[in-house]
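User: Predict the complex.
Assistant: Input components as received:
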Amino acid sequence: MNNLTILVVDDDPVIKRLLGQRLVKEDYTVLLAEDGYKAEKILKENHVDVVLTDLMMPGEISGIEVIDIAKDLDRNIEVILITAHSSVDTAVEAMKKGAADYLEKPINFTELFLRLEKIDTMRSVLRSAEDLRQAMDVTETNAAETIQNLEIAAGDLQQKLDAIESILIDDETDSHSRVTEALNILLN
Amino acid sequence: MLKITAEELKVIAQYIHEICGISLDQSKSYLFETRLGSIAEELGCKSYRELYDKARRDPAKKIERQIIDAISTNETLFFRDTSPFDLLKHKIIPEIIDARTPNTPQLKTNVKIWSSASSTGQELYSIAMTLHELLGTQIKNFNFKLLGTDISDTAVKQASYGKYNKFEIERGLPRQTLQKHFTLFGDTWKVKDELRGMVNFRKFNLMLPFTGLGKFDIIFCRNVAIYFTLQDRKKLFNKIADSLADDGYLIIGSTESLTGICSRFVPKRHLRAIFYQKK
Ligand SMILES: C[S@@+](CC[C@H](N)C(=O)[O-])C[C@H]1O[C@@H](n2cnc3c(N)ncnc32)[C@H](O)[C@@H]1O
């Protein structure tokens, strides 16, 4: 069971179809785009987990720009680049921009599925970390409120005790009125 | 991972308490192993006893510093818990400015603020940003002294650089505040000079006597005493009371309490936050 939605961007219709079919067979949800422009449109309208894009594409938007577009829309989107051997340097450059990984052509599917699995695991780890953090926040907020109330209550009691002490200790006054006054403070 | 023996656990826990006051639960041996194991291995130690002996004999105290860094939790956030900063903005700062404004208009108002376990600096920079937000361009007419101290060299160093990665930035900092006070260099955000120039950071161990620090108008002592024993907490807040101006303000962590720890302070509530003042 794979929960990732993958957007495949490639100007070569054969590669695009082949990639799409293989991914669907592995149970991934797949969206297809033939250029950066279409990719942008799809990214804006759909929830996508991973973008698998060709680095070199004709048209106005290159694979590198697809990274920027995807990351701007949702910084959690992972981008995997597909490159020709000759453009490995560009791919490394792209990783600095936030691409998760790159694959050289011809695509080794075992390798691709491994990377996707890694991304999937990573995402569920991040998700549980986020859940945990939120749970901790709730606990902490609650604890803070309880402690604040107790702190103020303890402070008030202390003030009363201090006042009672100074009344009882004061031997200028007769003991009966001291007790009356002390009781007054206690009962208020 | 190198295993720790019961004997070593005792010796190391005692040593850690001695160097930084942190009191670790000796029943949690994994805590010692996960935090100190890699230091021991890196130094080629075959046991924790050996690590301890090496640390004791190290004249430069480099190992001691590494151990403190590994043991202490530096977890912090910009505007952590938000309410203390609202409190500063709406109550404490206006009141203290009122109280400190000299009768001679030529003299500047002096206000001293201390973040006493400043970690990587987020707390003190949040205070500085709050001052900016409240006072705007008027800020130059005041003389604010903002000091941040921590026992961890690495934390003090990062605070001094004022550099944060995107994870440290993303939590707690509103976009506008970020744009106003930080500049992006590659993938790290750096505090702008204007803010950096307001603060000072240095190393200081809260277990030691507070000599040479002077008196402060506002002290933040948040989320550090929780690592100390009850006895050490009592001593700490007593020293803090000594270093706080008579009409000064103390702010502690949102889940901390001074009940049964220091009777020299009275808790007061404002909006949804608590602060302490001396009796
Ligand atoms: C969890 S952080 C709290 C940071 C910040 N005050 C906050 O509330 O977000 C705790 C810090 O206390 C520091 N610390 C631990 N023991 C200390 C000691 N004895 N003296 C000074 N700082 C200490 C640690 O290095 C760490 O940076």
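The radius of gyration of chain B is 20 Å.
Let me know if you want any component modeled separately.
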